[in-house]
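Tokenise the fold.
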Amino acid sequence: MDVIPAWFQELYETTGLNFTVFYDPYDWHRYVDGLRMTCLLAVTTILVSLLIGAVGALLQTAPSRIVRSVVNVYVVVFRNTPPLVQIFFFYFGVGAMLPAGQDQFGLRQPFIDNVEWAIIALSLFAGAFNIEIFRSGVEAVPKTTVEAAEALGYTRLRAYVYVILPLALRVCLPALNNNLVNLLKTTTLAYAIAVPETLYAVKQIWSESQNVFEMMLVLFVTYGVLVGLLVWIMHRWEKALRIPGYGR
């Protein structure tokens, strides 16, 4: 395994291309820690935003006009404002209004840290789009299918969970795929509130080693691999759920 670090060390000495993350253990660990944080942000926000989308689409058809209005206002607000502004709003605005404790040095210690605020803000941002995507899928389910479920004694909630949502998911998966890929790329905005994700770690490395070009290449390849992996998983999921003649 020493062959790879030695090769990149020699590459630096002979060509000047300084990929420190591949031969310097300290930079390597910083890069891996950033990658782990990016994966944590991506997986958590994807799961939470999917839950928001499924629940929001159900509430959009609620009998109560107030509930429907609250969901619609949420969708409009979070779809029409930049995600970076939303992150700042939650971290600097809402976070400053919440009560906080103190550490051993008497400094303010918020109960919700920057990572948790990034997850909340990004989940709400992507969840607003997911609600509309799920809604389009729900509207594509034939009314006769819903009526058949009700005739079998399903309540509105059970019909949504066991009949409507599974069928709607098959229709809206391509659009959902695009939104989740965008969400993965949007996790880089967490850099703005000092969340130590991949971009943050890479920026620290090139600031110290002055190897901006090399680290930008590493960054491009990293996100290319992550997005490619997510797209592959989504396509496999889409293929597994496909029903011949339905939704196509």
